[in-house]
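Before drawing any conclusions, I looked closely at one protein's amino acid sequence and its C-alpha cells, quoted below without any editing.
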Amino acid sequence: VATYNVNSVRARLPVLLPWLERVRPHIVCLQETKVQDPSFPAEAFRELGYHAVFRGAKAYNGVAILSTSKPTRVAFGFDDGGPADEARLAAASIHGLRVVNTYVPQGRSVDDPMFRYKIEWLGRLRTLFDRTSAPTDPILWVGDFNVAPEAIDVHDPKRLLGHVCFHPEAHRALAEVRAWGFDDVFRRHVPDPNQYTFFDYRVRDAVARNVGWRVDHIWATEPLAARSTAAWIDL
C-alpha cells in the first residue's frame, strides 16, 4: 500500500507510471489530483493493470484510489449533513481491507476560517469511523493528513510549533481520530528521526538538506497493523 500527494496527477504521470511499473503496489492512494473527473487519466493506469476510483475538481483538491483488484463499496465524502467535501475523501473495499483515503485540509493560517474547518473536518472523520466501522475491522486510513504528529516529524519543532500543520489543536484533533483505534504503521517499524514525506519547494535545497515534514501517513487498525512487516518512505 502506498500514498502519494501528487500535486496534479497529470503532471506527475512521467514519475508515477514508471514507479508503478517498477514497484507494483497493490493499492495506491493519491491526493491533490487537481483534475475534473472526465479528464482523470484512468486509461493510463488501466494499461498498467490498475482499477481507479476518483473524485476531483479543476485545479483544486482531488483524491483517487488505484488498486490491482476491482474495488467495491466505493464512497466519497461525508454524509453527515455538512459539506460533503467529496474531493477530499474516498473509501473503498479492496483485498479484504476498507481503505479510507483522505486529503485533510491544510488550514492556511491559524486565523483563517480554513483552520477551524480543518479541526472540524478531523472531528467529522472520527464520527464517520464511529458510525461506520469498528476498531477490530481491517481498516487503513491513508493520505495527506496535513499534520505532523510529533516533534520527531518536523525538522525544527521549536520554531514550527504553532504552524497549522504542527499546532496543538491539530495535534489534539488528530489524536482523537487515532484514539478510535489506529496505529501509525510507519512509526511501528521506523522509530528514527529525520524521516520526512514533504519538502517545501520554497526552501533552498530542502530535499538535499532534509528540511522536511512527515505529514503523509498510513495508519491501520491494531489487528491489521500487527500484520504489517515493513514501512518506508520511497524518495
Summary: The CA atoms of residues 68 and 198 lie 26 Å apart.
